Amino acid sequence: MCGLIAIAGGATFLVGLVTIRETNYPARTPEAVAKPAETFAPKRRLKDWLVTVGTFVGWNIVVQLTSSQTFTKLPYGWKTGSLGLLSISGFIGAVLAFFISGKLIDIIANRMTRANGGRRQPEFRLPAIIIPALIGLFGILIFGLTISHHTMWVGPAFGYGMQGFGLTAVANVVVTYAVDGYHDLAGEALTVVFVIRNVIATVLALYTKNWQTATDDSEQNDNSVAS
């Protein structure tokens, strides 16, 4: 699978390299360069650069790795094919987010625009992140708690779907805000978002298995002591 993914990624890169035009050439006028530094916005603090999308992508990785470690063992004992079917719930949540999140962003942004006298601001998109963020958070909690109590697959699947909805909707809000707020630097802004997102996901992917193994060993030791 790693080889196939590498081939597909390399082919996609080559196709994009020779077919996608670069259309972003921000003009740097002498007047803008000559302005004093006080006229520009101050640098953002570290906490202002944290990327919300990375957190949700990281938890998506944790959910996937937890599924592979949990449902293939007792008391579930699923086969690999059945484990793959569990991901359908996350896919359904993402598909619902495609249609609902965009509409939600427009409704909230349009109302705030009317309240602002018809003047649109990029930050009017940000309040729409609250609802999917809460849905995704509760989805992760439902997924973890139902697995911890060894419930039927319906509970984890429902939580997985909520997490998939939250991840997709939150990413939609962040991406549209970045494009709307940084017209001339939209490509660079999205690159920063995706780089930080993938760094968080990679770190969690590397250490989640060890974290789960340590948790399982601790539970086994506690059960031994109790017995």
Automatic annotation (TrEMBL):
It is found in: Membrane. The chain crosses the membrane at residues 49-71, 83-105, 126-148, 160-179, 186-207. It is a multi-pass membrane protein. Keywords: Membrane, Transmembrane, Transmembrane helix. The keyword Transmembrane applies. InterPro entries: MFS (IPR011701), MFS_trans_sf (IPR036259). It holds the Pfam family MFS_1. Its main location: membrane. The keyword Ubl conjugation does not apply. PANTHER family: MAJOR FACILITATOR SUPERFAMILY, MAJOR FACILITATOR SUPERFAMILY (MFS) PROFILE DOMAIN-CONTAINING PROTEIN-RELATED. This is Uncharacterized protein. It comes from Sporothrix stenoceras.
